[in-house]
């Protein structure tokens, strides 16, 4: 390192932080139980078809019912 001048040390403090927990980690049972013990507010929301063996498309929607009940002939000449 000839010709670079005198070496000095930088004594400025450096702050290292952890990343925020990911969404998957927030759902972990251990993390939820720790939050309950700490007194944090926890919200549980059940999804509409959670835990069922039905696909979202298996139910008849209003638009499908209207199309099935339609008796108008829509053929080209």
Helix content: 25-40%
Helix count, DSSP H or I runs of 4 or more residues: 3
General form: elongated
**Helices and strands: which structural class?**
mainly alpha
Distance separating the two termini: 90 Å
| SSE string, helices as H and strands as E | HHH
Tell me the fraction of residues in β-strands, as a range: under 5%
Would you count the extended β strands for me?
0
- Rg computed from alpha carbons, rounded to a whole number of angstroms: 31 Å
Extract low-pLDDT stretches: none
Keywords: DNA-binding
Pfam families: MBF1 (PF08523)
InterPro entries: MBF1_N
Protein name: Multiprotein bridging factor 1 N-terminal domain-containing protein
Keywords, please?
29% helix, 77 residues, elongated, mainly alpha, 3 helices
Describe this structure in words.
- The protein has helices spanning 23-26, 29-38, 62-69.
- It has 77 residues and is mainly α.
- The chain starts with 22 loop residues before the first helix and ends in an 8-residue tail after the last helix.
- The mean pLDDT is 77.
